[in-house]
Every structure is written in C-alpha cells, then in structure tokens.
Amino acid sequence: MQQVPNDPRQIEALLDFYTSAGVDCFLGEDAVDWFELTRRQAEQRAQSRPQAPAAGPTHTHASGPGRGSGPNHPMPAAAAPQARVPDAGQTAVLPDAQVIAAARDQAASAASLEDLQACLAAFDGCNLKLTAKKLVFADGNPQARLMFVGEAPGRDEDLHGKPFVGRSGQLLDRMLEAIGLDRSSAYIANVVPWRPPGNRTPTPQETEICKPFIVRQIELVNPDVLVFLGAASAKTLLGVQDGIRKMRGRWMSYPGKGKEIAAIATYHPAYLLRSPLEKRLSWRDFLSIQDKLTGGSATRER
C-alpha cells in the first residue's frame, strides 16, 4: 500500500491530483462488486413496491367516470406517477440510430433556449443522465456576440449545474478579463450537458446523441464568434480531424443561422492548468478573438 506523505504540501498536491482525475469520494481497501450490489438493490426495490391489483371480478364489473377512484378500486400501479430521478434499477437506453433521430427531432422543435433546456431536462436518450447530478445547460449572456463550447462538464459543474465553474472556469474568467470581457460578455456551453462518470471522455455514441442539442443551441444564440475550448468540441461540430496543436489559432467558418460564424479553437483551460507554458499560445488566441470582435460591427444584427 502506498505510504501517505507527511508534508502538508505533498498531501495538498496529491489531493489536487485526485480531484483533477475525477476522484470525488473515498474508497475502502476492500473491492466492492457494484454490479451485484446494484442487482440486490433493484430486487429490494421491486419487492418493496406495492403490487398492482390482479384483474378480476372486482374491476370487470366497474364502469363509469368513478372507476378506480374509490377505496375498493385503487389506482393501478402503472397509472401512478413515476419519479423523475433515475435510480440504480432504471434500465439504460441503447444508443442507436432511433435515439439519435429522436434527439434531432426534439432539438429542432425548440423555439427558444428555454424550450431547448426543457427538452434536454425531459430527454432520457443519453445514459449519462442516469449518473449525473444536474443538467449543465449554459452560463453567461445569450445575447453576447461571443460563444464558448467545451466538451463536457466536470465535478464542480455537475454540482452547481453551470459550465466552467471549477478551476478551469476560474482560469477562463481570468483569460476573459485579460481582453476586457467577463461572463456577461459571453455565452458558455458544452457539447455534452451531463458529466461522464469519473470525468471520463464521452463515448462517440454519447456525443452523437447530444450533438443535435448543442447545434440547436448555437443556432438560437447565433453568435458572431464561436470559440471551441479543446479539440473535442471542434471535431464534433466542424467535422475536422486535426489535433489541437495544429488546429488552434486558425480561423475557420461555422454555418450559422443565415450567416457564416467565425470560429476558432484554442486550448481547454483544464489543459492549461496542467501545461502552464502553453498559456502564451492561448493568450495569442484570445488577442485574435479580441481583434475579431472589435473589428466587426458595433451593433449586432439578430
């Protein structure tokens, strides 16, 4: 077993490493079979649920509007309202073409950002929703000319329900401040609005299911400048395959609502926390973003 360091600075660095890696709970020394535990919990819940009344003479002779509302005719279990919060016994959804098509239809039906957020809150096609605590929809000003898109929320974002509120978000705030902006001057979202367990990378299926919602979100915001934080969001929305080192700092075009949106990719703030020497390149990117914003029209047409 690894020996715990005595130096408080080493302990702080170790805890910071675990937090960045997505560890958000303490574990014991003995392994736990979570599959078996989940199965037993599901069985216990099934046994504790009230059984639906068996079909028989008690119900076959009842008729009229009062049926099922009296003491002798309790409401069938299938008609009872179900809890919105998923539990360990809830069946996961198979991420197939039908689920992706349903996501496209629901996203396209949203006429406003409020409608889109409601659609996401009610959407059960992405299994990340089963493990996430909150929906992380967006933050900032939806009327801003500048929009940032990351890949997926982390632990702090999952707890607060807002994107980029942890250490990465604090760095992003400082980077915005360096070019004279703040969150009231930008709109911030992620491709995937639910935190993957342990901060793992979203699977291609999870990203594809969530993609119609971020595409619609960009359409509704209709920014003048779109910034991809990291290569993952740029690859998803632009269809490019270049790595972030080759892609960053290069202006591209994103098809917006009735116009071409100026788009650029830069390093994700989480990467800059691990590689502070790369901040100089991100600084160049943000100066380029500032030039693009100030070189455009002062009044925005929507």
TrEMBL record:
<dbReference type="InterPro" id="IPR005122">
    <property type="entry name" value="Uracil-DNA_glycosylase-like"/>
</dbReference>
<keyword id="KW-0227">DNA damage</keyword>
<keyword id="KW-0411">Iron-sulfur</keyword>
<dbReference type="InterPro" id="IPR036895">
    <property type="entry name" value="Uracil-DNA_glycosylase-like_sf"/>
</dbReference>
<dbReference type="InterPro" id="IPR005273">
    <property type="entry name" value="Ura-DNA_glyco_family4"/>
</dbReference>
<feature type="region of interest" description="Disordered">
    <location>
        <begin position="42"/>
        <end position="86"/>
    </location>
</feature>
<keyword id="KW-0004">4Fe-4S</keyword>
<feature type="compositionally biased region" description="Low complexity">
    <location>
        <begin position="71"/>
        <end position="86"/>
    </location>
</feature>
<keyword id="KW-0408">Iron</keyword>
<dbReference type="InterPro" id="IPR051536">
    <property type="entry name" value="UDG_Type-4/5"/>
</dbReference>
<feature type="compositionally biased region" description="Low complexity">
    <location>
        <begin position="44"/>
        <end position="55"/>
    </location>
</feature>
<keyword id="KW-0234">DNA repair</keyword>
<comment type="similarity">
    <text>Belongs to the uracil-DNA glycosylase (UDG) superfamily. Type 4 (UDGa) family.</text>
</comment>
<keyword id="KW-0378">Hydrolase</keyword>
<protein>
    <recommendedName>
        <fullName>Type-4 uracil-DNA glycosylase</fullName>
        <ecNumber>3.2.2.27</ecNumber>
    </recommendedName>
</protein>
<keyword id="KW-0479">Metal-binding</keyword>
<feature type="domain" description="Uracil-DNA glycosylase-like">
    <location>
        <begin position="137"/>
        <end position="287"/>
    </location>
</feature>
<dbReference type="Pfam" id="PF03167">
    <property type="entry name" value="UDG"/>
</dbReference>
